[in-house]
Amino acid sequence: MKKFFKIIQQILSGGFLTLPEVRRIYPFLLFLVVLALFWIGNTYAAFQLRREFEKTEETLKVATEELQKLEKSYAERAKRPSQLVKKLAQDSAASKLKMSHDGVYKIIVNENKGGEK
User: Fold this and answer.
1) Contact, 88 vs 97, CB < 8 A?
2) Does 109 fall in a domain?
3) Are 85 and 100 in contact (CB under 8 A)?
4) In the Cβ-directed half-sphere of 62, how many Cα atoms lie within 13 Å?
5) CA atoms within 13 A of residue 96's CA, in its CB half-sphere
6) pTM higher than 0.70, yes or no?
7) Which of 17, 27, 80, 92 is 20 to 30 Å from the Cα of 62, by its Cα?
8) Which residues contact 34 (CB under 8 A, 6 or more apart)?
9) What's residue 4's pLDDT?
10) Does the pLDDT of residue 93 top 70, yes or no?
11) Which domain holds residue 50?
């Protein structure tokens, strides 16, 4: 029991750090401390990155829902006839006009300089 108290006293006083057996493993202990610090730092960075990812994921989900609502709204508006079409339908003189369902055509005119072909 006396030996046990002597070991505890050396540990608490720091006297065991001066023993040759302990001094021989100082470089290894320093390596373990540095390794533990890197591990703690990496864990903190991983948690920080995960929180940022979840925040971005939630923002993306909200933006996607908003986009779907807007697309639905625009699709409903596109199905409704425009004010011009309503006005033309009511006007008897414009009843000869019809809505074009063809695409827009682009006419390209080649103008040659100096009459060259």
Assistant:
1) yes
2) no
3) no
4) 6
5) 1
6) no
7) 80
8) none
9) 87
10) no
11) 10-90
